[in-house]
């Protein structure tokens, strides 16, 4: 109630400038963090209001990355008003439908082509020392969520000392591989839920405030192996090849051999998939957002298939087999 009162006070201040109609305020969406979004009608257009509690997350990163992406030619929300103290922001409305709402067999190739074109634009604009680095410490912190929240909290698994050592060694291999890649700007959640299909050829891009400077394969890995949609492997490879070809032509530092780049994508995706298994469980057990539990099997499948393809990842492949056997024994249906 207090938050709504603060929002109403802020609206009273900014509404006259944009012809905002407070009575049209409706809930638009929330993300996996602490932000909420509302839609409101104004003079001749609709707007989006971001409500971001300052004690939870800063809006400064959003403003900074929005400017970087706009300069790079990406279609990101225009920022009209920012109240850093109150945690409110008035943005342009990029539409009501995301890629997740409209993707189907008929339009997937076109939409993914638009998405990878925009991704290359962002990466071409990359400069060091502008965004935080995707450091070994951050990669490790993320991948450890798998152990803490998925294995221990969700599955109640107790690993043997040997299993712990093998898992840590595997994490070391994955992170070393990730860090060996060339660095660019990384959106960090470049996936259908955060892309808008209009206008054609330049999709709207959302939820970019956590962007970093890190491995070049990260965003294409998250785009093609999505949290909420599963695609056939041949389709994923095709989209990745098309991205890789665009990146090479744009002068981006991807490997000259696609096979080498594909391995980068797989190992980078593996770090993300392990992290997401932990995050989705944390969202459920800590934050009460149970809907994410239903998508765990998709990531278990991603991790299992990738780990099984590489001899050095055999300990992880064995662990995933053990996990899936445990699911059957105790009747997990997620």
From TrEMBL:
It comes from Turicimonas muris. InterPro entries: Aminoglycoside_PTrfase, Kinase-like_dom_sf. It holds the Pfam family APH. GO terms for molecular function: transferase activity. This is Aminoglycoside phosphotransferase. The keyword Mitochondrion does not apply. Keywords: Transferase. Residues 25-246 form the Aminoglycoside phosphotransferase domain. Gene3D superfamilies: 3.90.1200.10, Phosphorylase Kinase, domain 1.
